[in-house]
Design goal:
The structure holds two protein chains of two kinds.
Chain A: H1 6-13, H2 19-31, H3 33-53, H4 60-73, H5 86-97, H6 100-135, E1 138-151, H7 156-159, E2 162-171, E3 174-183, E4 186-193, E5 196-201, E6 204-210, H8 220-228, E7 236-243, E8 246-254, H9 260-265, E9 277-283, E10 289-300, E11 303-316, E12 335-339, H10 346-369, H11 372-390, H12 406-411
Parallel strand pairs in A: 6-12
Antiparallel strand pairs in A: 1-2, 1-11, 2-3, 3-4, 4-5, 5-6, 7-8, 8-9, 9-10, 10-11
Chain B: H1 5-13, H2 17-39, H3 42-58, H4 69-94, H5 106-110, H6 113-122, H7 127-138, H8 143-150, H9 154-178
Helix pairs in contact in B: 1-2, 2-3, 2-4, 2-7, 3-4, 7-8, 7-9
The chains are: A alpha+beta, B mainly alpha.
């Protein structure tokens, strides 16, 4: 028997040859080393392909359940065609009769009518969504946050995205939130219960007693606050998407339209900031967000960054395990700290912002004049300011060791910030 | 013996949801792979797959030959992928300038490394060969099923499949040499 070509071995590895042919090939390769090698290569490649294509199983069962649930909830019986609107009917009729002059006359009126209907509709959908969010009792979602550089430089560590998951429930005025995240292989777990925040990190459990809720754009609780502050109808409709198996409509709101107090807290809209955005995708059926995305511009001396935090796969009013929200026992806590910082009122905030901007100019001047060593230090300090804006004014950022207090910045001089 | 696609389509049209679920089990992987080729992201591909099946369900009675369900579904998938691409382009045009530099953060968590390698290799194959490989490996290694999805004769399908494997091996060898 002549040595078969590679295609034959490939077909054999896929089980596509008949039994007689397969048997003769098996016999042949026993005697031919070259063909044995060709066979092993073909079989190896086949196994690799089987393995790689298995990745397409990707959550298959859960996805099927979702699909079936969608069909059960809302889909018409197979083959049902959605009813035509009266406007569509007129359009079809006009097309049929080729009444071009009538089309020309009615088209502008139809456009105006459609615009009115759409704009009014958006406001209602958005307002309904906000109301449902206010009434929701529990929420779970995945979080991913990225920081990208628009201008200047950023350390590799800060460029790495972090991933996390959030579970939250609301009981009256109290909110409990569990936040688990991972960055560069380091896992952190944070549990906020009223004024207490517990942080599990590596081998330690730290307890923070805060007089006010911690606020940051990377904090889902505050993203919700942010959302609920939206006083306007959305700026832009982003269109429909299927997200985690659910049909959703996206909306975008400029962050500067949020309440003034929240602007500081969410680290987004500095005065004059027109870039920060909040995007919300609302489940068409449930009327609740399935995805929220906060995109913020962060300006620091020598650099301009953009932080994007996406809260994805949001599930509302789901059952939760109470055990997950149990605080650690007293004896387990490694370190306990109390942070007493009042929430700044608006006047204090404005004063703080003025000081911050003034310092930014001074720092920039310092960067321009100092030696390289000094510049590095300034950049480090500048990052503190950026982090500060990620957090809340006058508050510590849980999970970090930086007690960033904005009002100390006002007293600083020479472009150097206190640590 | 398992029922044919045609029988399952008939049952689904009579309101049997489990029949449609069975069709999903049979064809979702194939559709997911097609969508993945467009999106490059497994999560989005899975979303598009659901969109494909939702549309298929709504239009099921327009399917003339129920036994051609897989090929018909493939057509819907292609349409959905085209729409997805158009949507992407539209978003890019209208998004604010900052968003132009926004990295897709979800990619890292929703992409299997095996798929990344496979996708890179498959991208280098002619479409017919790529589809033949996908169809075979995603239809339970059933050549008859796979060739019916693509509408090819048995001999053509075998020839295309063998050629795809050979080309893939050459690509792997080249990558190894380069690395």
């Amino acid at each position: 028997m002549n040595c078969p070509d590679a295609n034959t071995w490939n077909l054999l590895s896929m089980g596509l040859l008949d039994e007689a042919r397969s048997e003769s090939l098996r016999e042949h390769r026993k005697e031919c080393e070259r063909c044995r090698t060709a066979w092993e290569e073909a079989l190896g490649q086949h196994s690799e392909l089987v393995d790689a294509f298995e990745a397409f199983d990707c959550d298959h069962d859960r996805r099927r359940e979702q699909l079936m649930a969608m069909l059960d909830r809302s889909a018409p019986e197979p083959g049902a065609v959605p009813g035509r609107t009266w406007l569509g009917g007129i359009a079809m009729s006009m097309q049929k009769h080729k009444t071009r002059w009538a089309t020309a006359a009615l088209a502008p009126a139809a456009c105006i009518l459609i615009a009115i209907v759409m704009l009014t509709g958006e406001k209602t959908v958005f307002a309904d969504m906000l109301e449902k969010v206010r009434q929701a009792r529990t929420m779970q979602c995945d979080v991913v946050s990225t920081t990208t550089v628009v201008e200047g430089q950023l350390s590799e560590f800060l460029k790495k995205p972090w991933h996390g998951a959030v579970s939250m429930y609301v009981d009256g005025d109290k909110r409990a939130m569990l936040f688990e995240m991972e960055q560069m292989g380091v896992k952190t777990r944070s549990l906020s219960l009223g004024n207490k925040t517990y942080v599990w990190s590596q081998d330690s459990i730290r307890e923070f007693d805060t007089t006010t809720q911690t606020q940051s754009a990377g904090n889902p609780a505050d993203l919700l606050n942010q959302l609920l502050q939206v006083r306007e109808s959305p700026d832009r409709r982003l269109g429909e998407e299927t997200i985690a198996g659910r049909r959703a409509v996206g909306y975008e709101v400029a962050t500067w339209k949020l309440g003034a107090a929240m602007q500081s807290a969410v680290g987004g809209a500095m005065p004059g900031d027109r870039e920060s955005r909040l995007r919300v995708w609302v489940d068409v059926e449930e009327g609740l967000p399935v995805r929220m995305e906060s995109e913020r511009a962060i300006v620091a001396p020598g650099s301009k960054l953009k932080a994007c935090t996406r809260f994805d796969n949001i599930r509302w009013n789901v059952a939760m395990n109470a055990e997950d929200f149990r605080p650690p026992a007293k004896e387990e806590i490694t370190k306990s700290e109390t942070i007493q910082t009042p929430t700044p009122d608006e006047a204090t905030f404005i004063e703080g912002m003025r000081g911050l901007l003034e310092l930014k100019h001074k720092a920039q001047a310092g960067i321009d004049n100092d030696q390289e060593e000094s510049r590095r230090e300034e950049r480090e300090n500048a990052r503190d300011v950026a982090l500060d804006r990620e957090g809340s004014f006058g508050q510590r950022i849980p999970g970090t060791s930086r007690p960033v207090v904005a009002f100390r910045v006002v007293q600083c001089s020479g472009g150097r910030w206190p640590g | 013996m398992s029922e044919t696609d045609g029988a399952l389509v008939g049952a689904a049209l009579r309101g049997d949801r489990s029949a449609f679920a069975e069709l999903y089990d049979r064809r979702a992987r194939w559709i997911r792979a097609l969508c993945y080729h467009t999106t490059g992201d497994l999560h989005s591909a899975a979303d598009l797959t659901q969109e494909v099946f939702l549309r298929a369900y709504a239009k099921l009675d327009s399917l003339r030959d129920p036994d051609c369900f897989a090929a018909w579904l493939t057509g819907i998938a292609r349409q959905v992928c085209r729409e997805w691409k158009r949507g992407k382009l539209r978003d890019r045009q209208t998004a604010c300038s900052l968003a132009e530099e926004l990295q897709p953060p979800a990619r890292e968590e929703t992409t299997d490394p095996r798929l990344e390698t496979l996708r890179e290799a498959l991208m280098q194959l002619p479409e017919r060969e790529r589809l033949a490989l996908q169809a075979f490996y995603l239809q339970g290694l059933d050549a008859e099923e796979a060739r019916s999805v693509l509408g090819l004769s048995q001999s053509t399908f075998y020839r295309v499949l063998a050629k795809a494997r050979e080309r893939l091996a050459a690509i792997h060898r080249r990558v190894e040499v380069e690395s």
